[in-house]
Amino acid sequence: MKALAKKNLADALALLAGQATVWVPAKVAGVTRFAPWSPAVTLDLEATPPAVSPKEILLPETESLYRYSAYGMDVTFEAVEQEVPPTIIWGIHSCDVQAILCQDDVFLSREPQDAAYAKRRAATTLVALACTTPGPDCFCTSMGLEPAEHASTDVQLHILTDGYGVEARTARGEEIVARLAEKGLLVETIEPPAKAQACTRAVNPEGIDKKLVEMFEHPYWDELAATCLNCGACTFLCPTCHCFDLTDHRRNAHEGTKIRCWDACMFTEYTVMAGGHNPRPGKKERVRQRFMHKLRYFPERYGKWQCTGCGRCVARCPVHIEITDVIKEVGEVTLDG
Amino acid sequence: MKELHNVNVAMRTLARELLESGTVAGVYGWKKGSRPTLTSPLYIQDAAKADRLAYDQYAVSNLSALLLDHRNNDKKRAIFVKGCDSRGVVRLLQDQQITPEQVLVIGLPCPGMVDEAGSLLTKCAECRFPNPVMADQVLGGVEVSKQPSAPTGVTAEAARKVGVGSRAGERMAQVAQLEGKTAAEKEAYWAEQHDKCIRCYACRNVCPACNCRDCIFDTEKKGWVSKAATSSANAFFAITRAMHVAGRCVDCGECERVCPMDIPIMTVNRKLQQDIEALFGPYDAGVDETVVPPLGRYQTDDPEEFL
Amino acid sequence: MSALSPKSGSPADCAVTEGHVGLPVLDPPPTAAPDTGKTKNGEWQPYIVGFACNWCTYAGADLAGLSRMQYPPNMRLVRVPCSGRVNPQFVLRAFQKGADAVLVAGCHPGDCHYGTGNYFTRRRFLLMQRLLTFMGVDPRRFQARWISGSEAPKFRDVVTELTEQVRPLGPNRLWREVEP
């Protein structure tokens, strides 16, 4: 296996950054999140996982879709063409790679594809980093992932004592490896990559999706929602939550830009209809929706969990509503008749 | 925590009695979480579940804002409170979000809350009101006090040992440090903090002072602020929130604790507290229900700078 | 009030046309350009939003106009029933929409048409001014003044003084709303 020594990492990133935007986990204002690499960036490859997922790279918090103007009958629309540079996400963990596959399902697997997402996704190369020391809230193994590697990445980096084992998985990955090798940044090694330690958090989700079909009206949701604050911390930190709102940035009464920004099923306004009716009027309905979506609707539609076990919602829920508890408790509750 | 063993037993017994007798329709307390170092909020309506109640040095959550879920409901709810939480309840009572008939406040002695690593939370080291400022009942021998006081009750010794209130005099240290910076540095610092905000509104939802029925940030139609988390809109949210709780913030520190982006929200709240005290005299929000918050009253001889 | 009244429409409509020689060309807030207007000779002009109470300051401004007093045309007045009506969001919104400075003005304490409104204004904005300073805003960019209905010269002086104070500060970019 080829290896990239730790001391060559900055050179490797600099080399790649010459031709692409390279997103790396970095400390930004005290928070570990993905940021475009530059020599000034403080790398933080140890965070398991980074506090903010790389979701924002492919699905920005806010993006402009088109500009409109309407003066009387004189109406025009003009698409906002996003410039999408070649993009490399370096140091992404298995949980977040899996999350991107979930996003692909949502935005690309059925017609019509989401043009803006498709464009960014097509320009993106994933360089996954093995995750060998899971954080206290990680449970990816329970959700069927392998923290040390992911099959659907372009390049897989393995952890070695003083560097990273580099393994290309796709043609695009080969290209990156070739470029690094060409500059003499890679050496051959026979060192076996570090194995991942077991997650301390574990849960068995098997059969939950089927059981939830019978649980829409179950009193369990009342109990679970009682302490929920209905904030959006869980959904915004979640790497697979993809709900968005289309709204206007108005310049004046006639002109503006249609923008897309993140939205969350936890918010009251999310389901309010034009006439004022809200089909999810309370906490219970909103909390239920979140877990039903992750553990039932998504698996029904796309055949995979919409939770990758990254543990971000577990770590940052203000009232400690933990999806692992939900999976466990749903498995345990009794169904009436 | 062994000092709290009897308090835990008493909590469960009391909750069971209150629910069985129908005195209250529900009880807010805490339960043990998925790790021994986590104690999370719990709401029970069934006396059989009273045994899940637990209270220890990890029960940091202030549950008072959850009472807002029942503001349109006449039934009584019981709530267990530490000193800081009790100020949240006073906030709701004073803002007439709930009536005294809707809540039964049970005061608990506070041992000083610690993080998962076991070190005392800054807000506890800076705490001036470790005892409930109001309570219908108390457990663990804690004394109700509307004055800044030393911890009382069965955990008084433990609280003193870990240093609850030991840095009360340094509460404004972070504010002073920022005030010492130049305008450009301050601007850069806050721009960075506001940029981080993801507008999850955890700070607002956990706050007992943020109790509007209809928040301008929930209804985009009203056109106050863009839903998009831009730097401009985030700053608008942060400052609006700060001004809205100015003079009403009960200093429980929950906004800062729940912020997933670690924005120093309490620094802003403390800055406002400091200025209010300097301009309009000493005031502790959520302590005495009969004293109107400073921005809701005036004096004809207030400082005058706008001539 | 100011000789310029914002019109709806495209940015070009809003700019003062060639005919108004000597007046600065200012973009009104709804179409706020990255930086506000310039005069013909290229000098930058501050854009100031003033919230004026209906009973005192607005009357004072009116009187200044009737008396043909000369003052810089940099302020747009927003008439409010009472300075107590101005809440912090108004001020922030003005900054978001391109204001380089904001003035809140009302009756002198004791003279409020509603009795006590401006006492609350005083407390609120004493505090807000300090908070904005804490966040790095130059205190000159946000001010409050008491101007009675008969104080037309004071209105003229305040507008002149504020404009001259803000001019050297340059455009305010903090919190400016930019198109996403």
UniProtKB/TrEMBL annotation, chain A:
One of its GO terms (molecular function) is metal ion binding. It comes from the Bacteria. Pfam families: Fer4_22. Residues 217-249, 297-326 form the 4Fe-4S ferredoxin-type domain. The keyword Iron applies. Keywords: Iron, Iron-sulfur, Metal-binding. PROSITE patterns: 4FE4S_FER_1 (PS00198), 4FE4S_FER_2 (PS51379). This is 4Fe-4S dicluster protein. It comes from Heliophilum fasciatum.
TrEMBL record, chain B:
Keywords: Iron, Iron-sulfur, Metal-binding. Residues 187-218, 240-269 form the 4Fe-4S ferredoxin-type domain. SUPFAM superfamilies: alpha-helical ferredoxin. It comes from the Bacteria. The keyword Cell wall biogenesis/degradation does not apply. GO terms for molecular function: iron-sulfur cluster binding; metal ion binding. InterPro entries: 4Fe4S_Fe-S-bd, 4Fe4S_Fe_S_CS, Helical_ferredxn. This is 4Fe-4S dicluster protein. The lineage of its organism: Bacteria, Bacillati, Bacillota, Clostridia, Eubacteriales.
From TrEMBL, chain C:
One of its GO terms (molecular function) is iron-sulfur cluster binding. It holds the Pfam family FlpD. Residues 48-170 form the F420-non-reducing hydrogenase iron-sulfur subunit D domain. Keywords: Iron, Iron-sulfur, Metal-binding, Oxidoreductase. This is Coenzyme F420-reducing hydrogenase delta subunit.
